[in-house]
Amino acid sequence: MKKVLTIAVIALSIFASCKKETTTTEPVQITPSPPKEAEIVEPAGDQCYAWKSNGSVIEMSFNVNSHQEVNGKLSYNLVGKDKNEGTLIGNMKGDTLVADYTFNSEGASSVREVVFLQKDGAFIEGYGDVAEANNKVSFKDKSKLKFDAKNTLVKVDCKVE
């Protein structure tokens, strides 16, 4: 009897030590969020900017599509110089507008590259060394452009034409 009791105690202790402790927890339910709809950004309409100083005026209006392509108008009416106005076609590259400005001045059509840096809701025109090739004036090195804050085009209400 001692033998049976000893075997029973050993068997129970083995059984108890091998028994895994199980805790019942509620399964965590993960609800996947619905896929986000592709965001299609439509043009926000014309954006208009102007700079005015001592009778000189620079006006720019454009819109930007979902591919960051810019299409608009630009005009310069500087004291002591002929007025020129034309089209602006280019791209937004981060905070920088790089475009071709096709305009008429003194009876001739010309194309020149323009670069504007967008800062604090305004645009500052870039200046630098240029070269002419294929009837277009372009900047030699856009990384060396200077942006003079005194010629900042600020946001204005667009004129209704």
TrEMBL record:
It comes from the Bacteria. This is Lipoprotein.
